[in-house]
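Protein modeling request. Please complete all fields; requests missing the sequence field cannot be processed.
Requester role: graduate student
Desired output: 3D structure, token encoding
Chains: 1
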Amino acid sequence: MGADEKALKDRTLTHLYNAVSAYRGGNGRDGKIPDSARKFAPRLAELHDALDAAVLRAYGWDDLIGTLRTPAGDEAVLRRLLAENQRRA
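Delivered output (89 residues):
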């Protein structure tokens, strides 16, 4: 198997999201994460941050932008989603 084939085989969703988690946690050099996934992690994290912000804007929850992935921010989103689901039920 050539280097390109190995890189493609290592680029699984599990590896990519483990790499994003390690990148966000400051452990971007985790030896268990393939290089092909690790080098894509910053871009994937950036894309997810943009998507999260767009979804929060769509709900009108601009005040929560920048608070995600914190205990208080995550709890606020869950509380609002529960309230929205109950309102629609």
